Amino acid sequence: MSAAPAVTVRVPAKVNAQLAVGGLRPDGFHDLANVFLAVGLYDEVTAAPADELTLTVSGPDAAQVPLDRGNLAARAAEALAARHGVEPDVRLHIAKDIPVAGGMAGGSADAAGALLACDALWGTGASRAELLGICAELGSDVPFSLVGGAALGRGRGERLTPLDVGGTFHWVFAVADGGLSTPAVYRECDRLREVSGGGATTADVPDPEPSAALLDALAAGDTDALAAALTAGGSSNDLQAAAVSLRPSLADTLAAGTGAGALAAVVSGSGPTCAFLARDAASADALATALTASGTCRSARPATAPAAGATILPAERGVTAH
Ligand code: ATP
Q: Which parts of the sequence bind ATP (predicted)?
């Protein structure tokens, strides 16, 4: 009997060039204007034939990743199998390089990767639209992990419009020890809005809108204009104050990056990863070295954006699941 060969998919992390957060809706969610940029830090998800669904994870943060059916990659495999009336029999392996609970959509990346890998392994032949539909059911950031590049996300972030990017941007990501819970950061954002006296509901908070200056900077590939747009009004990330409130040491990380020459410093999504814009590859390398030496983060990693979305690797490149 010849088993189907394993399929490996490479999936990027994301940074939010802008995260505008509307008021708390009655259903507990917030409307967003979410400018996603896929960045060149990757997880690899391998799907191999098996008699039942199993999951393993490798990498420095592997111990923090759930191995049960709560793992988004396993849920993605089950969702695809259920739609196509097949058993979710697959051996999934995640080679994890994206920080866990770091505000870089690592779990979402694994879900998109598992979906694409299982579709190829099982020959389910799902259309792009079907895959995107399953992604949206799995989580707000999952559709973007599939498509990559740059996109504006509306609604909870899952309604995507692709964005033009006119060049390559050089970033450094300062990875913290320990993650932050995304729901806890949203709750803190609501709390800060309430204590400031402005209120936190959709009646109190203006509808979130993308920044025209930021979209223009991306389209032009203009690093200086992007730096200005990232820091206009303090930060383009409405969750930044909440993340810093829950993890005050992030203020030191942001200051260390700015002091070491970053053109802009923002918290990535719900944090605690901090993202720094650099002028070019050499500046990014120097900034990463300075940030690591500052002792304000666990590690600092240069990466470029935009990066491609979930991509099936050539068979000879694919790793064997273990
Ligand atoms: P986002 O930026 O989308 O808010 P994040 O990058 O902050 O997400 P994730 O790395 O996606 O956070 O992890 C959030 C939580 O999701 C983890 O604490 C973990 O319990 C759970 N989780 C489920 N599946 C995975 C997965 N495949 N990888 C990492 N975490 C996962």
A: 99-109
Model pLDDT for residues 306-319, shown as the tens digit of each residue: 999 999 999 865 44
Amino acid at 12: P
Greatest pairwise CA separation for the chain in angstroms: 68
Architecture of domain 169-305: 2-Layer Sandwich (3.30)
- Give helix 72-84 / helix 128-138 axis angle, nearest 10°: 130
Cis peptide before 302 (omega within 30 of 0): no
**Model pTM score:** 0.94
Task: Please identify, by atom number, the ligand 1 atom nearest to the C-alpha of residue 70.
Answer: 23
Using a 6 Å CB cutoff, which residues line ligand 1? 65-66, 70-73, 94, 100-108, 110, 141, 179, 182, 269-270
* Non-local CB neighbours of 67 within 8 Å, separated by 6+ positions: 55, 56, 57
